[in-house]
């Protein structure tokens, strides 16, 4: 019984690895499928590739955001909706080590930044705006550097084409060592009806560059995540900029209409499309009928 | 309500403000309690707190609520549904006695089953704080919890896997490809469960239909679940979607659950709605819950209670709704709550033990994020320990890499590793299916077929040309 039958094992080609013929399915996903196996374990090549990816993701967490470059990028946005002034602020987390261990500090502006914003940006000047946009480094500076400009351009284009409403926007704010909830404080200081936070999501092995979007209606300090709507995984190989902008605009409009955000605001932007395509077709089920 | 506690050690007297403070300070060190400012100030203070806690009668927890009864429906659930008769067997014990009692030869799986309803989450959390890792493993191993839907989960000597075929854009072929890979590595008997990238009712319904078609076409004795908000699933049920399991992330305080956008009434409604579909074959456990230490603090809803006790209180919520599966997603929340491999390992074993002691079908997402001080070796260790402890199920994903949620959990390969080294079988219905479908050529040795099994080769044919 303990004898392994080598002669009948066609896939056993002498190197100890059993290949998976369904490797061809890798065309459908970046997931690590069809890796093959040594016994039931991951083969050496795939093991070492995984470890390299992990090393890259770990490094992405610690790479600081290039603020100057981002500021220059944002100044190039082509839209009449935003001013060329870019505000730069800092959370209460002074460095990455503290940032990782103290999310509470990443959710609040540093004293200097708060004072600055109160003096320059705000609510005390009696201004009200429809939307404040905060660009927050989060856990991946690479995500911000790669996706912010093209995404915001797509969103601003859609907003400009929107005939039903003239949007007033606060100056775009860049946040260092920030978490999502810091947008609430920024929105409040701008006296904004809503805040849209662009944040670098925690890097994955196959996606060190994923951008997340969080929308909060009536932002103020102390709100929980139940009051936010999220659109995730915006990056070249994930959700594309146009689609993400379309969904963001839908959420913005709905939150304006209903005067709320969060769990009571459902993202139905593509429901019509999905409902009218009863298509759940895929290679696994379709071919079975043949 | 607010009794102070003290403990005299030699010349020195240690004071603890109240039961909440004593519990927090007796907790093995972890970053989340440090973040909350509730941790012991020194190793000695922690050790003394454990001694003081050990002297505490279990009854104390029925008289002193850590989160006030008046403001918290989870506390009301715990107190109002406490089974005094079941408790009578252990009502004379202190926390320290309880540990000895649990480890004793006389306490068999049958005895543990009898007293379940008499144990409150706080009692379970308290005793876990004075148990070593091997104690947590030893007693959890004696707790047998069996549930069922289309497969039977939790039988002794078995471990199931959730096949988690996530895709960053919910691409149907991408998801199907991961399901295919998982099934051919023998995974998926706990559930095929997708975290949707787009979280709305239409998308959830589409994914439910996809999985339903796969399960029906290949006659797989398993169940599907889309991990969307409970209210989305309820709406999907109303619209006629093929819902097997209702999912929800849950926490241990009312305020945590409010921050997640639900309360106990909503869960009750959801459970009834899913039961009305009557889709189970071997059982009718229709709920799938996920938890994780740190969620209450993260929602600023912990009331000064340490994160492990908050976590255990979430199990009272779970227990109320007879779930098929409860999954502690132990390393997902990040290093601010569990800093490194050592803290993640300890938390995984605590959660599994407390859940099992309270009678839950406890599984564990053995996982870590890229900003935590952990790696695959830490996961290998925890997976092995949980396998020994009799964990009901773990995750299975392609090559440990979740390309949607951006974290690492156990792989399809990992599940086969733990089956081989510990002799753990899948759910019996699924085991038979694996044999019939020729995924395994030898189910006793967990030998995979080196060919694509004939029943699956048709779906590949078109692609291979």
Summarize this structure as a short list of keywords or feature phrases.
heterodimer; A: 290 residues; Rossmann fold; 10 helices; 6 strands; B: 465 residues; alpha/beta; TIM Barrel; 4-stranded parallel sheet; 22 helices; 16 strands; 12% strand
Protein architecture, described:
The complex is a heterodimer of chains A (290) and B (465). Chain A has 290 residues and is of the alpha/beta class. Chain A folds into two domains: 21-60, no CATH class; 64-272, 3-Layer(aba) Sandwich (Rossmann fold). Chain A has ten helices and six strands, in the order ααβαααβαβαβββααα. In chain A, β2 (129-136), α6 and β3 form a beta-alpha-beta unit. In chain B, α12 links the parallel β6 (191-194) and β7. A four-stranded parallel β-sheet of chain B has the order 7-6-5-12, with helices on one face. In chain B, strands 8-9-10-11 form a four-stranded parallel β-sheet. Chain B starts with a strand and ends with a helix. Chain B is an alpha/beta fold and 465 residues long. Chain B has a domain at 147-448: TIM Barrel, CATH 3.20.20. In chain B, α5 (73-80) crosses α17 (307-320), α10 (133-142) packs parallel to α18 (341-357) and α12 crosses α13 (230-238). The model of chain B has no long low-confidence stretch (mean pLDDT 96). The radius of gyration of chain B is 22 Å and the shape is globular. Chain B has helices at residues 19-25, 31-36, 43-54, 60-63, 73-80, 84-87, 95-103, 109-115, 121-129, 133-142, 172-184, 201-217, 230-238, 254-259, 264-277, 295-298, 307-320, 341-357, 376-389, 412-422, 428-436, 454-464, and strands at 5-9, 12-16, 147-148, 152-153, 160-163, 191-194, 224-226, 246-249, 287-291, 325-329, 362-365, 393-396, 401-402, 407-408, 440-442, 447-448. At the A-B interface, α1, β6, α9 and α10 of A face α2, α11, α12, β13 and β14 of B.
């Amino acid at each position: 019984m303990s004898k392994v039958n080598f002669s009948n094992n066609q896939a056993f080609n002498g190197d100890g690895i059993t290949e998976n013929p369904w490797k061809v399915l890798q065309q459908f996903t970046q997931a690590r499928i069809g890796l093959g196996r040594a016994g039931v374990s991951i083969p050496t090549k795939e093991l070492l590739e995984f470890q390299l990816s992990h090393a890259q993701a770990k490094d992405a967490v610690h790479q600081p955001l290039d603020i100057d470059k981002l500021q220059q990028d944002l100044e190039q946005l082509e839209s009449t909706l935003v001013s060329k002034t870019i505000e730069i602020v800092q959370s209460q987390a002074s460095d990455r080590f503290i940032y990782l261990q103290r999310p509470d500090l990443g959710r609040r502006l540093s004293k200097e930044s708060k004072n600055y914003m109160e003096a320059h940006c705000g609510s005390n000047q009696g201004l009200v705006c429809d939307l404040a946009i905060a660009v927050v480094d989060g856990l991946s500076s690479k995500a911000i550097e790669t996706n912010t400009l093209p995404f915001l351009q797509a969103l601003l284009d859609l907003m400009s084409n929107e005939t039903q409403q003239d949007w007033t926007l606060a100056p775009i704010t860049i946040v260092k060592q920030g978490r999502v909830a810091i947008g609430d404080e920024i929105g409040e200081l701008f006296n904004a009806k809503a805040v849209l936070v662009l944040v670098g999501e925690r890097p994955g092995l196959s996606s060190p560059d994923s951008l997340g979007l969080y929308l909060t209606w009536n932002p103020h300090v102390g709100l929980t995540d139940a009051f936010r709507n999220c659109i995730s995984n915006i990056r070249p190989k994930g959700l594309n900029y146009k689609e993400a902008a379309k969904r963001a605009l839908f959420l913005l409009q709905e939150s304006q209409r209903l005067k709320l955000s969060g769990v009571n605001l459902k993202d139905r932007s593509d429901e019509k499309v999905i409902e009218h395509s009863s298509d759940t077709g895929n290679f696994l089920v379709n071919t079975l009928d043949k | 309500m607010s009794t102070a506690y003290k403990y005299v050690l030699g010349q020195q007297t240690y004071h603890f403000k109240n039961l909440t403070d004593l519990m927090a300070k007796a907790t093995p060190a972890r970053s989340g309690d440090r973040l909350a400012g509730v941790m012991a100030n020194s190793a000695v203070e922690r050790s003394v707190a454990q001694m003081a806690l050990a002297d505490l009668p279990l009854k104390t927890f029925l008289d002193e609520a850590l989160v006030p009864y008046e403001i918290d429906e989870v506390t009301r659930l715990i107190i109002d549904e406490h089974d005094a008769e079941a408790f009578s067997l252990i009502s004379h014990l202190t926390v320290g006695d309880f540990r000895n009692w649990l480890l004793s030869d006389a306490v068999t799986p049958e005895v543990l089953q009898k007293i379940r309803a008499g144990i409150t989450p706080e009692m379970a959390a308290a005793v876990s704080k004075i148990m070593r890792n091997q104690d947590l493993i030893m007693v959890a191993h004696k707790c047998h919890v069996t549930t069922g839907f289309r497969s039977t989960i939790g039988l002794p000597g078995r471990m199931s896997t959730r096949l988690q075929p996530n895709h960053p854009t919910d691409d149907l072929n991408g998801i199907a490809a991961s399901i295919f890979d998982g099934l051919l590595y023998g995974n998926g008997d706990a559930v095929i469960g997708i975290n949707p990238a787009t979280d709305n009712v239409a998308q959830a319904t589409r994914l439910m239909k996809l999985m339903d078609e796969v399960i029906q076409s290949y006659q797989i004795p398993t169940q599907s679940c889309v991990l969307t908000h409970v209210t989305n699933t309820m709406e999907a049920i109303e619209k006629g979607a093929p819902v097997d399991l209702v999912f929800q992330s849950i926490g241990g305080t009312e305020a945590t659950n409010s921050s997640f956008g639900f309360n106990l009434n909503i869960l009750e409604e959801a459970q009834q709605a899913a039961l009305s579909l009557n889709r189970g074959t071997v059982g009718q456990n229709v709920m799938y819950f996920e938890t994780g230490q740190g969620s209450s603090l993260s929602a600023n809803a912990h009331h000064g209670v340490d994160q492990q006790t908050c976590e255990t209180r979430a199990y009272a919520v779970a227990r109320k709704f007879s779930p098929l599966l409860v999954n502690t997603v132990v390393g997902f929340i990040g290093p601010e709550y569990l800093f490194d491999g050592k803290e993640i390992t300890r938390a995984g074993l605590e959660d599994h033990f407390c859940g099992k002691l309270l009678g839950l079908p406890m599984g564990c997402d053995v996982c870590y994020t890229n900003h935590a001080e952990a790696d695959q070796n830490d996961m290998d260790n925890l997976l092995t320990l949980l396998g020994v402890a009799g964990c009901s199920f773990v995750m299975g994903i392609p090559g440990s890499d979740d390309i949607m949620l951006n974290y690492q959990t156990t792989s399809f390969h990992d599940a086969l590793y733990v089956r081989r080294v510990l002799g753990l079988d899948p759910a019996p219905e699924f085991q038979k299916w694996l044999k019939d479908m020729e995924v395994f050529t030898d189910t006793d040795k967990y030998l995979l077929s080196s060919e694509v099994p004939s029943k699956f080769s048709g779906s590949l044919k078109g692609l291979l040309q």
